[in-house]
Amino acid sequence: MTLSNARLDAVRAVAEAGSYAGAARILGVTQPNVSAQVRALETQFGVCLFLRESGRLQPTGLCLKLCDSAERLAEARSEAERLLLSRSSLREGKITIGLGNAMPGMAIIAAFHRAYPGVKLEVETGTHQKIARSVLTHECDIGVLPDVPTNPRFRRNHVSISEVIAIVPSNHKLAHEHEVTAVQLSSEPLIFRASGSSTQRTLERMFIRAKLTPHPFLTLDARDGLYEAVVNGLGIGFMWRASTSRTDGVVRLPIVEMRGVVTHETVFSLKETQGRIVEAFYGIAKAFKMD
Question: Which class would CATH give 94-161+264-290?
Answer without folding.
Answer: alpha beta
